[in-house]
Amino acid sequence: MAGMFVTAWWWPRELDNGRWVKLGVGILVLEFILIHAGGFLNAYSAQKAGWDRTWRLIALTAFYTLFGVGFALAFQSWWLLGSFALVMTGRLWSVFAGQTNMDRAISQRRVVASVMLYLVLVFATLFLPVPRGGLNEPLLNEVWPARKTGAWERQPERALAMGAAYFLFLGLVELRPPRKLPPPFKVT
Questions:
Q1: Alpha carbon separation from 103 to 29, 60, 93, 169 (Å, rounded)
Q2: Single pTM value for the model
Q3: At what angle do helices 78-97 and 51-74 cross, to 10 degrees?
């Protein structure tokens, strides 16, 4: 995924003739919701199975689905909606199928790493200079003519740089297995 972001940033025409510039920003917006949902779902995986937990999971999933559909419509991308559905299906499956303590520890570490990386990299790419790469105004006006005034829309190179770093570092975190089991998240 990091490679896709680097390619969209430096050689935007190589990915779907530049369409990936807008899609990359959409992926990062959707990732924010997936991070949030991952924290709650990981907490519910530690709870005892039952109707109360099931109904809470259904309500939570419906709530996040509204965001997933909204973002897919805003970015005009069925790919975003499909990605959201696949990730959420896998996460829900892991909650209902049950997880070992080690599985929960790995999920918990991913959630914490995702939150920290996302926040740090968003601020870093907003306040530090980021090269334009292969993006220029004529290209952006062609591949994303309806851009608004948000920082990532005006300067999508910031989002693409953030996505490249985020997915690279998150992949490195996932390569290293946890040394010990942390205490589980608790939802009250």
A1: 26, 21, 13, 20
A2: 0.84
A3: 170
List Cβ neighbours of 74 (8 Å cut-off, separation of 6 or more).
26
Q: How many domains does the chain have?
A: 1
Is residue 16 in a domain?
A: yes
Q: Is 83 helix (H, G, I), strand (E, B) or coil?
A: helix
CA dist list (Å): 59 to 32, 40, 53, 90: 19, 12, 10, 17
Question: Would 186 be classed as within a structural domain?
Answer: no
pLDDT in tens, 153-188: 999 999 999 999 999 999 998 887 666 655 665 665
Contacts (Cβ under 8 Å, ≥6 apart) of 54: none
pLDDT, the chain, mean: 88
CA dist., res. 134 & res. 33, Å (int): 28
Residues 11-21 have pLDDT tens digits of 999 998 999 99
Range of the domain at 162: 2-175
